[in-house]
Structures are given as C-alpha cells and as structure tokens.
Amino acid sequence: MGDLDEYEGALAGLSRREFLTYCTGVAATLGLSPAFGVKIANAAVAAPRPTVIWLSGQACTGCTESLLRTHHPSLETLILDTISLDYNETLMTGSGHQAENWKQQAMKDNWGKYLMVTDGSIPTKDGGVYCKVAGKTYKDAVLECAKGAAAVISMGSCSSWGGWPSTGVNPTGAVGLNEIIKDKPVVSVPGCPPNPYNFLSLVLHFVAFGKLPELDDKMRPKFAYGRLIHENCERRPHFDAGRFAMEFGDYGHRQGYCLYKLGCKGPETYANCPSVGFNDVGQGTWPVGTGHPCFGCTEKGVGFTKSIHELASLKSVAPPNSYPAVAVEKGEGMSAGAAAVVAGIAGAAVGAGAVISSRLGKQDAKTESSSTAAE
Ligand code: SF4
Ligand code: SF4
C-alpha cells in the first residue's frame, strides 16, 4: 500500500481512515468489491497525478459549482490533490494570454495523456461565433484539445447532448460534444447539474485502472446510469399502491405520495440520484425526495424537451391494477366498482385496463370507456 499517511491533514482534514473509507465508498459506487477501495486509494496518492484540462462552452457554470459544493470530503480539495487540474476558466486565477499560454503548455507537456473535460454545449450555427474564447470558436478549441487527450468526458447535459441551449428553436445550433468529436469516445456524465460523485468516481476509476468503466449505449458510465430513477425511488411503494399526489400541496403531496401524475420523469430517466443524493446532507436530498418531480435532466429527449407536467412514458412498469385511485372525483374517471362491473361484463383484461385508465386520469378513462363501448 502507498504511503497514505502523507494524506493525513492534506485533504480538508481527512484522516487516513476517512480517506480509505471514502475510497471504499467510491468502489461501492462503481459496483466493485470493498477490496478495490485500497487500490483506488493507492492510485489516488501515487504520482504523477493525471492532468485535466477543463473547457467550458455554453454553460451556466452549474456543473463546476456543483463540483465545488460538496463537503464530505471537500471535493475541490480532493480533486485538486488527486488530479492536476491545469486549466479551468472558472477556477483559475490567470486570465487572457497567460491562461491561454498555460493551456497550450499543459497540452504540450502531457500530449496523449491528459483528460479533457468539458461543460456546456457547442454552438455550431454561423460558424460557431456564439461562443469564442481567446479568439477561437469554442468548437475549434475542443477539436484542438481533444487531439491530444487520452480520454474525453462531457460533464453535464449541455455538453452531453446540447441541454437547455439546444431546446426549442435552438438559435445557436447548440450540440453535445459527441457531435463534434468523432475520432475518439466521448464519455458522458449528464445531469443538470451532474452529480459530482459520479464524475469523481469516473476519474478515480480511470486513475486506478487506467481505463474507463463500462458504458451504456449513450456512453454513460453504467455504475451511475444503469438503472431507472423509478427503480430506486423511495416513493415507489406509493406508485405500486396507486397513491399519487394530484397537485402541489394537496393531501397526497404532503403525505409523500408518488409524483407520477405531476409529471415525474423517473420512469423514463436513468440515473442514480435516489441512491447518491445531492449536497452531502443525507438520504432523501434529491428533487423527488424534496417533493418535486424528476424532470429527466440526464435523458436526451426528456429533460428540456418534454414539458414539465407531461406524463412520463413507462419503460418498465405500469401502475398496478389492483388498487383504486385515491383522488377520483365523483362522476369523474372510473370508480373501482364501475371497473369491477366492466370486468364482469367484458372480462378481466378490459377491467384491468379500465382501472389503470381511471388512475391515469379522467381523459384517459373516457378514452378507455369509449373504446370499450365501441368494442
Ligand atoms: S448541464 Fe445544467 S448545470 Fe451544466 S452547464 Fe448545462 S445548464 Fe448548467
Ligand atoms: S414516478 Fe417519480 S415519484 Fe413516483 S415512484 Fe417513480 S420516480 Fe418516484
């Protein structure tokens, strides 16, 4: 084992034990056995630290801010000690020619070995003039930097697939990094903002094993994006029992019922938000945990694309058919009793469909009823 004692006091007050515990946690996040925690810790303290060059395009800076707002351990300290962050426009003190020269020097000294990380989308319309740094279009800057990179990581939804700058009419022709870099894989860590621990785990995996972790078909690390939000959500028992909040502040919302009918996109969004949480303040600190529907920020075609209160497409599950809805007004939708009658007349399958429809709302129930009648 490396000399981890060197780390005592160096990482925002982390002791050797805390550092090992932290690395074991990273191993668990990566889906590895606890024994790999030691390997990751050794790799993290071994010199030389990998150089990271971080470029920012059409970004709100939320990705970097998210990285800086974690405290157990203090991520900015850990990441600055684990890697060598040689260029980041938000964090560095240099500017102008000095900063640009430093970036060029860092690229030259570490050609073929550095990690390139980007946040923000890339404007492509009108020759890319909508985002320029040091007299170059951002598109040219990422193409230049990617040539010498050992690995390329797009951090955040904007960099992964265009994010909010690409919504609607997309006035700047904003695209994700994978539309620009075609000659090497672009690993994607989407989110708005992305969870900083997913980024750190990705980097530590690269540092410890010299290769990238397993990726999904959208180039996202499977350890972080392998499961639907809906599969790990603490409100899932309410979904399964047919208990839904129908509007913000109603009884169901105050009771912590499922937010599906308020437009929660958890059933079609892959991310580990329920398990990892945000801001280091404990379990339940993520949008759904605090009462707001997931809006699908990690999922191209969902976040910033579907409207906030639009119902999610159910990828793997449907609401159950064995419970009545909790908030169907008299004379609206279809009651459980009515559904039972339908089931008796037209068969269990049609009845089950009617109950599902009653739960999915008045309009759907009407449609189901009329289609049943038509049959
Ligand atoms: S992904 Fe979200 S947090 Fe990151 S730059 Fe885009 S808008 Fe900001
Ligand atoms: S629909 Fe949303 S709130 Fe309901 S269980 Fe799924 S992820 Fe959780």
UniProtKB/TrEMBL annotation:
User: What highest taxon heads this organism's lineage?
Assistant: Bacteria
GO MF terms held by the record: 3 iron, 4 sulfur cluster binding; 4 iron, 4 sulfur cluster binding; electron transfer activity; ferredoxin hydrogenase activity; hydrogenase (acceptor) activity; metal ion binding
Q: Which residues take part in binding [4Fe-4S] cluster 1?
A: 60, 63, 158, 192
Instruction: Reply yes or no: does the keyword 4Fe-4S apply.
Output: yes
Q: Which InterPro entries match?
A: Cytochrome-c3_hydrogenase_C (IPR027394), NADH_UbQ_OxRdtase-like_20kDa (IPR006137), NiFe-Hase_small_C_sf (IPR037148), NiFe_Hase_small_N_sf (IPR037024), NiFe_hydrogenase_ssu (IPR001821), TAT_signal (IPR006311), TAT_signal_bac_arc (IPR019546)
Binding positions for [4Fe-4S] cluster 2 per the UniProt entry: 230, 233, 258, 264
Write the Enzyme Commission number(s) for this entry.
Answer: 1.12.99.6
Which cofactor is essential here? [3Fe-4S] cluster; [4Fe-4S] cluster
> What biological-process GO terms show up in the record?
anaerobic respiration
The residues covered by the NADH:ubiquinone oxidoreductase-like 20kDa subunit domain are 60-205
Task: List, alphabetically, the GO terms of the cellular component aspect.
Answer: [Ni-Fe] hydrogenase complex; cell envelope; ferredoxin hydrogenase complex; membrane
Q: Where primarily located?
A: other
Q: State the SUPFAM superfamilies in the record.
A: HydA/Nqo6-like
Q: Where do the annotations place [3Fe-4S] cluster binding?
A: 273, 294, 297
Which subcellular locations apply to this protein?
Cell envelope
Keyword Nucleotide-binding assigned to the entry: answer is no
Q: Describe the reaction catalysed, as an equation.
A: H2 + A = AH2
Q: What does the similarity note say?
A: Belongs to the [NiFe]/[NiFeSe] hydrogenase small subunit family.
What is annotated about its quaternary structure and interactions?
A: Heterodimer of a large and a small subunit.
Entry protein name: hydrogenase (acceptor)
Instruction: Recall the taxonomic lineage recorded for the source organism.
Output: Bacteria, Pseudomonadati, Pseudomonadota, Alphaproteobacteria, Rhodospirillales
